[in-house]
């Protein structure tokens, strides 16, 4: 048997929020917000509609913020690449235009604002992506390692652990992380999209965690001792243009 569905709407401040009430043999009343902004509520047949509306009304602030988040995520969808000539890739804050060329061996080379991707004639989008991903990882490793050396220099008078391992991983919820006990720092491949001063600030942030594992006052004091305008430098990372919280 199909579930009975009732359409309705509740008022959340200035906004009229549509909802769908789905009658199902469920124990609790469940609510989620769909990508089109509609709230979907499932409730058992015996729960009065007025009671459902009352609960929705009580949760209206949560519903509105969920709707807002979904709207923002839609804007922040990462670009879908087919790895064809003319597509843009952001590297160290600069937009580079991809130029696909036929040749062997496969390679990627940056020249000014162009990124030359050389692949065999019959290459598929998947193969082109694999080549680009390899280049992205190698470039991340090289650039972040350079920033790490600079961080070590800046913190030369502090007791950093020996043999720090630097890892690069595709992370969408953070720019970097540090496990002080294991002497490991990890950076997101997305960090390569940001300008060099942001890369430096993030790398330094993770290195300072070897001295102060938390985000205490002492942590920020140390960070600002070496980069006095740390907060301004990392402001850009909070802007929507550099959001890594992609809806993936
Ligand atoms: Zn931190």
Automatic annotation (TrEMBL):
Gene3D superfamilies: Metalloproteases ('zincins'), catalytic domain (3.30.2010.10). Residues 27-239 form the YgjP-like metallopeptidase domain. It comes from the Bacteria. Pfam families: YgjP-like. This is DUF45 domain-containing protein.
């Amino acid at each position: 048997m199909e579930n009975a569905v009732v359409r309705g709407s509740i008022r959340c401040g200035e906004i009229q929020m549509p909802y769908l009430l789905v009658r199902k043999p469920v124990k609790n009343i469940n609510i989620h917000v769909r990508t089109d902004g509609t709230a979907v509520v499932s409730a058992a047949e015996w729960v009065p509609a007025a009671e459902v509306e009352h609960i929705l009304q009580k949760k209206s602030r949560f519903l509105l913020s969920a709707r807002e988040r979904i709207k923002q995520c839609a804007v922040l969808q990462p670009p879908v690449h087919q790895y064809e000539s003319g597509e843009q890739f952001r590297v160290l804050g600069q937009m580079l235009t991809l130029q696909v060329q036929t040749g062997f061996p496969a390679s990627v080379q940056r020249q000014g604002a162009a990124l030359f991707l050389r692949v065999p004639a019959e290459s598929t989008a998947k193969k082109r992506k694999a080549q680009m991903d390899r280049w992205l990882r190698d470039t991340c490793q090289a650039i972040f390692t350079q920033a790490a050396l600079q961080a070590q220099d800046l913190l030369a008078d502090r007791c950093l652990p020996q043999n720090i391992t630097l890892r690069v991983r595709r992370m969408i919820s953070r720019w970097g992380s540090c496990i002080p006990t294991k002497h490991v720092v990890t950076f997101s491949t997305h960090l390569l999209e940001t300008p060099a001063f942001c890369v430096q600030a993030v790398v330094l942030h993770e290195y300072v965690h070897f001295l102060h594992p938390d985000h205490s006052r002492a942590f920020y004091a140390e960070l600002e001792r070496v980069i006095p305008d740390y907060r301004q430098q990392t402001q850009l990372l909070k802007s929507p243009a550099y959001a890594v919280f992609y809806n993936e």
